[in-house]
Amino acid sequence: MSANPLYTPPPVRGEGPLHAPLNMNSKWIRLNRARRHAVNHGVTFLAILSTVLVIAPLVAILVYLLYMGASSLNLAFFTKIPAPVGMPGGGMANAIVGSGIILAVASAMGIPVGIAAGVYLAEFGRGKLLAGTVRFTADVLNGVPSIVMGIAAWVVLVDRRGFSALAGSVALAIMMVPMIARTTEEMLATVPHAIREAALGLGVPKWRTVLSVSLKTASPGIITGCMLAFARVAGETAPLLFTALGNQFWSFKLNQPIAALPLQIYVYAISPYDEWHRLAWAGSLVLIVMIMVAVTLVRIYAARGVMKGAS
Amino acid sequence: MALPQMTTEEDPKPVMQPIAVTAIAREPGAVVQMPGDGGISAIRRHLTERGSGAVADRIFMGLMLACALSIFAIVLFILTVLVIRSKLSLAQFGFGFFVSSAWDPVSGDFGALPFIFGTLMTSFLALAMAVPLALGVAIFLSELCPERLRAPISFVTELLAAIPSVVYGLWAFFVLVPIMRDQLGPWLYKYFGWTKLFDGYNFGVGLLTASIILAIMILPIISSITRDIMLAVPTSQREAVLALGATRWEMVRTGVLRNARIGIVGAVILGLGRALGETMAVTMVIGNHAEIAKSLFAPGNTLASVIATEFSEATGDLYLSSLVEIGLALFIVTVVVNAIARGLVWAVTRGTPSRAH
Amino acid sequence: MGVGISVEHLNAWYGQTHTLQDINVKLPANHATALIGPSGCGKSTFVRCLNRMHETNPIARAEGVVKMGDIDIYKDAEPVQIRRRVGMVFQRPNPFPTMSIYDNVASGLKLNGFRNRKVLDETVERSLKAAALWEEVKDDLKKKSGASLSGGQQQRMCIARALAVDPEVLLMDEPASALDPVSTSKIEDLIFQLKSQYTIVIVTHNMQQAARVAENTGFFLNGKMVEFDSTHKIFTNPTDKRTEDYITGRFG
């Protein structure tokens, strides 16, 4: 405190609590007040500064990505497969379709299991220790790097067998399950208990109540949660690096390597060809737009009070 | 004692005329025959004959439970599979794997120390850059921000958190690297070269660049969870401090941050967890060199990026096994870090919706 | 006619709290019985034990003999079967928000697998008429959602929904407490109408309502049924001093 030039020590007092009435305008108190206000203004400035420092460059990144992507996007991108190395033209049609295939298979595996897990947590597990542990584990799993899922899928489906689209789908599916379980649970928790009671009071069995009342009421939010999970795994590259591997040509088989959009973006980005860099930007734009749509839809639902910010 | 008189007419006149249906008396349990329609009897019959659904209930709950348990199964599956496949290198190198700096596929000597170093260095540098800024944003958004700006800014933050890693890597590779090489790097060397942190060639890629992009990526998650935690502090705490004559910053410091301390630590650790495992963006700008970097400009590698770069071309069981072992280490570390972080955040927010980031 | 309910040595717990202590009472068929008493003394719990809704709460437990007609509902039947024979109307109207009015009223039947279109149509019309709501909603049955009605209308729709499954007993847990006076009096008229075909048990905080509507009244205090007798006797010449104190407003 002695280093602070504005600080003057309080006047010496005698014994007893309020020995003399406090002079609110004494020099010490005035200076101290000024110091406190200065600190307040300083921190406010820092907070605003950090927000600007954070938001502005991030918005700049977003705008830059959109611009670079837009200027590289054309019809050929969506319809052609990559041209031979060094030649102009070509597109990422096979990567878009490939991503679609991988995501469809992953969703078919991950969404039902995820929703069912969420149903258990919300409808059967309230207050039970098992449900709490599952919930905690799901949250922890959501923080595990996706490349680890890729390795696990590699060991079981690729090692000694060969790269395949199915392996990539499995890696993505195990990412989707905990995500969707949590959002489903949160959405089901918003269903008022009174309408469950109404159904039970009518003699509707519990399973039918869960399906026709709870799930039906929460379904917009549950679907939104699935969309979010879909958008997240759609952008994942790491788990596909050594499972789906990528493919320069059209492929529709599940037991063969297949192209995927984020994978192709990565390969093109680190390549030495300008033409491929251009394609990488275009692909990024497609990915970002899809994700922005999903996030915006979630926000709209949140504004309607359906979701409480699970992302 | 006189009790208040209340109207107790025995049979007050009904207000409505009962319709024909309700006038028919029924015996308990008897099936009613309605003139011309089998309505009530059909209902009664259907509902009585219908089973109680007890079996279906059990099957349904069993199915849901099985799917919930699948989450445990996933964790066990990953753990088992990784341990089994890395047996070779576990047996060969033992614990020495994590303290050896050799990484030589040709001679078959593998050690993960450079990658551990790279991971820790980049993560902590990223945290050092991101945490103050994230706190500032969180404080701004929760205490200082005008109501109208709040939604757009937090929307932008959410959007940024959702951008895929590879897209951040693309941007970092084509924008951040040249800036580092041509402008930021020389500037840093000029003014801070005395710290000996900025020696060596500067190609733009390296530890510092990776740390910067990592900081950008973990900022949204730290700031949004911190904001959630700050919002969870009851208003009464804020009001109590203000009533004592505190300035706004003092109110935030003692009324909010002090209460939210634990949760904020949790949010930071969550950011750390994310940074430890971040793969694609880091891979694209870290230079991919399996050596302990001696300066912030030097290329290096992280646990995640070495797997990303070398896995698909690795040959030889020992090589693959070592890479899988690195994956195992990554898995265990991130699980532990995330468990601690989630525990702290949960302790503060007590089970309110958690973010699935 | 409805069935009579006989309760012997009924005890109920919420976790460790002994909410109902040794209740013994006979509720006559085709009569309305009112249950009065201060807040939190077990009236709602008692009523929820009559259709085995009490046990839907994981920490809740009930023991004792409850007979409807000849059937011991705890030993001789499954909860789901009992609930199909006993209708319940809750304190706050709880229509299904995703269903139309028609679907709401028919939900007890449709969700239990009943498919006959003609009978469903007739049942919905009959129940809505019995609940005095038909005239107000007959044009919008399938267009309006159940949640778009006013509070009083919603509660009458919930009554219609309970009636549609043709129960023998109707349980009402403070059905009019969340409603305005006009709706309240409509519902009281309804109860008066219905008691000739169903056995009605109505929990109420409103003693005048009990007096208007029910032939018998039971007074609950701290989990025990202190007194059960004809309404007239309870309100003019109660046997137990505690009942007298409650009636005259000394507490509660």
What does this protein look like?
The complex is a heterotrimer of chains A (about 300), B (about 350) and C (about 250). Helix content of chain A is about 70%, strand content about 0%. By secondary structure, chain A is mainly alpha-helical. Chain A has 2 domains: about 25-70; about 75-305, MetI-like (MetI-like fold, Orthogonal Bundle), CATH 1.10.3720. By secondary structure, chain B is an all-alpha fold. In chain B, helix 2 (about 55-85) packs across helix 12, helix 3 crosses helix 12 (about 315-350) and helix 4 (about 115-145) packs antiparallel against helix 9 (about 250-275). The radius of gyration of chain B is 32 Å and the shape is flat. The longest helix of chain C is centred in the middle third of the chain and has 14 residues, at about 115-130. Chain C has a single domain (about 5-245), classed as Rossmann fold (3-Layer(aba) Sandwich), CATH 3.40.50. In chain C, about 35% of the residues lie in helices and about 25% in strands. With about 250 residues, chain C is α/β, with parallel strands linked by helices. Chain C has helices at about 45-50, 80-85, 100-110, 115-130, 135, 150-165, 180-195, 205-215, 230-235, 240-245; strands at about 5-15, 15-25, 30-35, 60-70, 70, 85-90, 170-175, 200-205, 215-220, 225-230. The two termini of chain C are about 35 Å apart. In chain C, the strands form 2 sheets. A 6-stranded mixed beta sheet of chain C has the order 6-7-8-3-9-10, sandwiched between helices. A 4-stranded antiparallel beta sheet of chain C has the order 2-1-4-5, covered by helices on one side. Chains in contact: A-B, A-C, B-C.
